[in-house]
Amino acid sequence: MGLSSEKVKIWDPFIRIFHWTVVTLFFCNYLLSDKGMPFERGGTLHIYAGYIVIGFVLARLIWGVIGSHHARFKNFIPKPAEFMAYMRAMLRGEHTNYEGHNPAGAVMILCLLSGLLLTGLTGWLASLADVFDGWQAGIAAATDFIDWGEMHEFFANLTMLGAGIHITAVLIISHLMGENLVHAMLSGYKKKSG
User: Fold this and answer.
1) Membrane-spanning regions, if any (predicted)?
2) pLDDT (tens digit, 9 = 90+) per residue, 20-63?
3) Alpha-carbon torsion 157, 160, 162, 164, what sign?
4) In the chain, where are the structural domains located?
């Protein structure tokens, strides 16, 4: 089925603000985090950018329950059989247009949200190494057998890998479907199935 020139509103303002804020802060924290750089690991900007990302991801989880139609998880998370059927169709060269996320995109969104939460959580736990009193010190003492800094780096790298796969897939699907999906995430509008 082809695409018409008519556009339909898909991504609400929260989804678009969430997407571009998290993309910007995650990439800043990942790419500009070496010693002496603006988002240096353990530095104020790095930590606060991480807190903002965690806050946005938690808000996105809530929005996934109460938000607009295409933002709700129940409207785009595929069943395993749907995901497998979509992947088999893709391998056969069949490309179906979806108003919102296609099944592979939906699974990637879940992976990225999980990766961001685990990166943020392990970053926070790594920061507790210097805490000596209060409830946070209790957490640090109870988990001091784990190198949270290495775990944080592992999840940051895994999330960056997922982001790279996501970007590549968006570009490929944009080309195959003849629609600029990056622009759709900026404007909120996609072409209607025709």
Assistant:
1) 14-33, 45-66, 104-126, 154-177
2) 999 999 999 999 999 999 999 889 999 999 999 999 999 999 99
3) negative
4) 3-193
